[in-house]
Target: Dihydrodipicolinate synthase family protein
Amino acid sequence: MSATTPPRIKGVLAPVLTPFGTDLEPDLRTFVAHCRWLVRQGAGLAIFGTNSEAASLSVDERVRLTEALLESGIPPALLMPGTGTCALPDTVRLTRHAVQAGAAGVLMLPPFYYKNVSDDGLFAYFSEVIERVGDRRLAVYLYHFPAMSATPLSLELIERLLKRYPGTIAGVKDSSGDWSNMEAMIRRFGGDGFDVFPGAETFLNRAIEAGGAGCISATVNVNPASIVAIWRSRDPAERSALQARADSVRKIFQTQPMIPAMKHAIAHWSGRRDWRCVRPPLTALDEDAGAALVQQLQEAGFGIPDAHALA
Model:
């Protein structure tokens, strides 16, 4: 347990896929192996994001998976656990656990069941979590994903939270797909130590040029080294070429539902069929769709290096 504030996390993070067994229980050993592989490729770990099937995981399961990572020696400073839920006590418990573990920050969805809630209501929710956790080490990264949550986070709400909790409101993952919104966040709040992470590597090159903090993107799960290379490059021409290559891979995965598609690819290259398992209501790719996906990826020259390590 860390007693000091961890350094700000930057760069490329994976919303880590959660492997399940055929009994639909989380596979802790494979989860740890996947996280280790991602770290070796230079990625950070935004565990319990959308692509982690976090909404299908219980609070106890999230805690248990986090503990498995810590016990395996994964540095907590590489972790940005997703802690936002609809139930305030659950969010507080998950957030407190992450802070006490020494995580670099937490990625916090707004409560997403009730629609058309006011900024006052959202401010009260985030404020209540921060006050109940009551720890100066807490770094909250807001999760703006209106297409899934149907609960957008306005610039006015962010400004209000920053004024009330400077230093604690550390940044945002913007999965809106709207570059103008991401750019507005960088320009309006970047000088206040507010870090903006686009929710797809598609925007990474533009984010770097504008002063963004990296990206938190689904396909980091399967293509980490290539996406990390964009972040690390200091040559604009090289970055553009790397960006085009990463975009071409992402477009192939987007021809299928992303979570089952990524899991199918890992299953194919690792030889572990269990990797195809998703929790209902999601369904695995059928054999034809999976074969078509793999063929497209292979024709594009894509493969998952050292995939046996994910098994």
In short: The two ends are 29 Å apart (CA to CA). Residues 11-235 form a domain with the TIM Barrel fold (CATH 3.20.20.70). The CA atoms of residues 18 and 52 lie 5 Å apart. The chain is about 45% helix and 10% strand.
